[in-house]
Every structure is written in structure tokens, then in C-alpha cells.
């Protein structure tokens, strides 16, 4: 029996490119953001709002900061929620800006379509390398699979198209979680901020009624403290809920635009392959 000699001239099997993760960067652990915001809120509440310069000798607030301090222990909680919305909104702005890429999405999509019409895959890949971001990442992965299917001689046309469609769907599914990251927390704060503000309002009104129910003349200090706590917490709760709603809807719309661009260019790639093969 003859010994088989290794085929020196044979080329090693090429490994298919594998996406390791989205290139969109963002804050992965929002819990740390909430903890940091809580620490900042407590420090502001104690060392700034509660500073002696904001109160007279009788302990009555002399300015707005002192009035905020009279809102009670609910104020740091509401400040934590408000700061969390601000931090996560800024984080989403940075993340979605990187997801968009360096240039205009509409111009990029038009450029890739033009390259596909000329069957210029290398030109389309060059546009992806220049654009970067989530849309470009999905298009680049689809174009790599496009070239593989173009050189494949074993699969049927229908199988090639199905493989290309699957690649677009997988690349899109890889990018979507990074785009939507932390937005569920912002959506939760739209309701939570209002509810916590309402809780502070109820606590403040309870104190006000307790002052009114006291024997003899009502304690004006306790009454004003209760009303201040109610109004301050109401204001913080409404501000937190309103800002969270605006932020959530704004970024959801931006994600929808990116998703539409990905779907449009992915459909064009598949249709171009079907028409030219």
C-alpha cells in the first residue's frame, strides 16, 4: 500500500469571516450609571441644596435651592432619575452617531446602489470602509457573502439568494441590540419619574394636612414645608418624565431611520444578485 503524500500545492481552506460583535460602542452596564447618578444627587442635596447660606437663622429657605431642599428625601431620588435620563441620552447620542457613520446615510446608500448596478463590489466595499458604522457593517458583511456566492458553483440560484438574505438578516440582528441598548431604561423612567414625583407630592400633602389638623393655630412652617415638598417633587417628576419621553421618541426615530436604510440596501443587494445571476 503506497503512502499518501501531502499535497503541497493545495491551498488551505479559507475561513469565512465571522462577526464578533457590533462596532457600536456604548455603556454596557446602566446600573453603574444609576449608582453614580445617585451619589451625585445625594452630594448635591446635602452639600449644595442643604447649605446654610440658602436658609435664614430660623431655617426658612431664602432662595430656590433652599426650597428644593425642603422637598425632602424624595428629591435625591428624583434627581437620580433625572440625571440618569440625561446621561443615557448623551450616551445614546454618541452611540447612534457612531452607528450612523462618518457621512450621510442617504448618500452612502445611493453610492452603494450605483456600485451594485455596475457590479463594482470592490467600489462598494471601499464606500463601506469610508462610511463605517452599523449600516456600513451590515452592507460589508452582505457584500462579502455576495462575492462568495458569486464564486460558488455548487449551490443553486435559489440557495444562493437564500444564503445572501440570511447573511443580511444575521448582520442586522447583530447590530440592533447595540442600537437599542439602554433605551428600555429611558422608557421605564418616563413612567417611573412621574410616579415617584406623585409619591413625593402625596407625602408633602400629608404633611400639610397634618399641620392643618394640629390643635390650636396651624403651624405655618410645617404647612409651608409640606406644600414645598409637594410642589418640588411634582416639578421634578414632570420634568423627568417629559425629558425621558422626548429622549426615547427621538432616539427611537433615529434607530428606525437606520433600520430603514439597512433594509433598503440589503434588499438592493439581494435583488441585484438575483437579476445578474
Summarize the structure.
This protein is mostly helical and 277 residues long.
Range of helix content = over 70%
Q: Give start-end ranges of low-pLDDT stretches.
A: 1-19
Tally of DSSP β-strands = 0
General form: rod-shaped
Could you describe the largest sheet, including whether it forms a barrel? none
CA(first)-CA(last) distance: 46 Å
What class, by secondary structure content?
mainly alpha
Succession of helices and strands: HHHHHHHHH
The fraction of residues assigned to DSSP E strands is: under 5%
Number of distinct helices: 9
Q: Provide mean pLDDT, rounded.
A: 84
Which radius of gyration do the C-alpha atoms yield? 29 Å
Output the keywords:
277 residues; mainly alpha; disordered N terminus
Architecture overview:
- With 277 residues, this protein is mainly α.
- The chain has helices at 30-49, 64-69, 74-100, 105-117, 121-131, 133-151, 157-180, 183-212, 220-276.
- It starts with 29 loop residues before the first helix and ends with a helix.
- The model is unreliable at 1-19 (pLDDT under 50).
Secondary structure: elements and pairs:
Elements (H helix, E strand, L loop, with lengths): L29 H20 L14 H6 L4 H27 L4 H13 L3 H11 L1 H19 L5 H24 L2 H30 L7 H57 L1
Helix pairs in contact: 1-3, 3-8, 3-9, 4-5, 4-9, 5-6, 6-7, 6-9, 7-9, 8-9
